[in-house]
From TrEMBL:
It is an enzyme of class 2 (transferase). Keywords: Glycosyltransferase, Transferase. GO terms for molecular function: UDP-glycosyltransferase activity. This is Glycosyltransferase. InterPro entries: UDP_glucos_trans, UDP_glycos_trans_CS.
Length: 477
């Protein structure tokens, strides 16, 4: 490498499988590249096909950010020795992944971008700590959810050691008859255990997910820092609690989305929204993984019909079970709602949520979707399903009052009357109006985070400066 050239840090960004992980990791990569990092974006062969599903607007554009991103991000697919990756095993790891990544790092030493300065890894890939230690570089965690979820993960072992978990009772019961209050996290107020993932509440420490999070907690102690895809203005208590525990946590969210307009072939849904009144449409989407049963889809459809409001509903092709929609939805539903509703298999979600016609978002409460809704100032009708989604719902509905939680059946299912009353409450009720005001307030806070002087900008700059100093030391004679 030419010693006269300015030495820039080189980050290896390792994403887990799933669009909910790949997309925010690419958003982070773009922000790092804009700061001056060279970025090697890593995914593995068993889920490399998911790159094709990535929002095209996330990929580097030569004209974007005055050329600061173009040429600074390279995507690499490494072998993991697996034919495919099951959706129910998104965090699977093996020795091949470790060796492939280590070989890649060692092979980059003589490249123009230089030897990697650090590994930026999601917590759900704790195996990257060993690779970083063997390579002699720091591991930085990027948590693509919120600070509360990270706080919960890094304080989980206590719940098992004290006998609080596993809980007694039925894991299929949506609302606990005698809610357990968790007060084990120093600096964070007590909260109901029922908003925790059922896989953690009702399984013992030998369960694969519990073992994974136990490993995450152990490895987190050795990370150089953790970058969290949230912002302190909406989570001051959680960030303070992390600080009390000695965790070097930095808020870097919400990471800016390039937000390119869709191509003409994808714009039919936007044209449809153009014909609707302001704040009149309920938008429905359940992310890239959550699926609804046929019974739930029928109840949701009947609730939408009963609400009388315009709707845009995303039903992924894999949720249609290779059937025509007319075979899945209630008989006559498509005809009765023709013109009032639009059903599509994919939507440019950021663009849809930013449209003046969208008045509410019926969502599974995945963190990416939650951030996108709040960034657009759109209140949510919360219908959490899996993982940390009930924690996110707790934030949206109970802490920020930026949404309404949909009532559920005893086992957490959907029912026509709950869908209908939830939509009406969000779009037309006093609670919904207050939720809109609060969502708009959070939208303004989110904008400030990435303006000059904002927390996210300052924390990304600090990360760049620290890694550049480390890089310069490693290149000094």
């Amino acid at each position: 490498m030419d010693s006269s050239r300015r030495v820039e840090p080189h980050a290896i960004v390792v994403s887990c499988s799933g669009q909910g992980h790949i997309n925010p990791c690419m958003l982070l990569s773009r922000s790092l590249a804009a700061m001056g990092f060279h970025v090697s974006f890593i995914c593995f062969s068993s889920y490399s096909g998911q790159l094709q599903q990535m929002n095209r607007s996330l990929l580097p554009d030569p004209a974007d950010l005055a050329g600061r991103v173009s040429g600074r991000i390279c995507v690499h697919v490494l072998d993991d020795g697996l034919e495919h990756r099951d959706l129910d095993k998104p965090f699977l790891s093996n020795s091949t992944m470790k060796e492939s990544l280590l070989t890649f790092i060692n092979g980059k030493q003589e490249m123009d971008v230089g030897r990697p300065t650090c590994i930026v890894s999601e917590p759900f890939a704790p195996w990257t700590l060993e690779v970083a230690q063997r390579a002699g570089i720091p591991r930085v965690e990027f948590h693509s959810s919120n600070a509360l979820a990270y706080l919960v993960m890094t304080n989980l072992v206590h719940l098992y050691s004290e006998g609080i978990y596993p809980e007694k009772g039925s894991p299929t019961k949506w609302t606990a008859e005698n809610p357990v209050m968790l007060d084990h996290i120093p600096g964070f107020p007590p909260f109901r255990s029922e908003i925790m993932p059922a896989e953690l509440r009702f399984n013992d420490a030998s369960h694969p997910l519990v073992k994974l999070i136990t490993e995450i907690e152990s490895c987190s102690k050795h990370s150089e820092r953790v970058l969290i895809h949230s912002f302190i203005d909406i989570e001051p208590t959680a960030f303070k609690a992390l600080e009390l525990q000695g965790v070097k946590a930095y808020d870097v969210g919400p990471l800016p989305d390039p937000g390119k307009k869709t191509s003409s072939s994808k714009a039919e849904c936007i044209s449809w929204l153009d014909s609707q009144g302001d704040h009149s449409v309920i938008y429905i989407a359940f992310g890239s993984i959550s699926t609804l049963s046929v019974e739930e889809m029928q109840e949701l459809a009947l609730g939408l019909e009963g609400s009388g409001c315009p709707f845009m509903w995303v039903i992924r092709k894999d949720n249609q079970k290779e059937k025509d929609l007319s075979q899945i939805l209630p008989e006559g539903f498509l005809e009765r709602t023709k013109g009032r509703g639009m059903i599509i298999s994919w939507a440019p979600q950021v663009e849809v949520l930013s449209h003046r016609a969208v008045g509410g978002f019926l969502s599974h409460c995945g963190w990416n979707s939650t951030l996108e809704s709040l960034q657009a100032g759109v209140p949510m009708l919360c219908c959490p399903r899996i993982a940390e989604q009930r924690l996110n719902c707790y934030y949206v509905c109970e802490q920020w009052n930026a949404g309404v939680e949909m009532m559920r059946t005893d086992i957490g299912g959907l029912e026509k009357k709950y869908v209908e009353t939830g939509i009406k409450a969000l779009l037309y009720g006093e609670e919904g109006l207050q939720a809109r005001d609060n969502a708009q307030r959070i939208m303004e806070l989110a904008k400030k985070s990435h303006k000059e002087g904002g927390h996210a900008v300052a924390n990304l700059q600090r990360f760049y400066d620290d890694m550049r100093a480390l890089c310069s030391m490693s290149h000094s004679p």
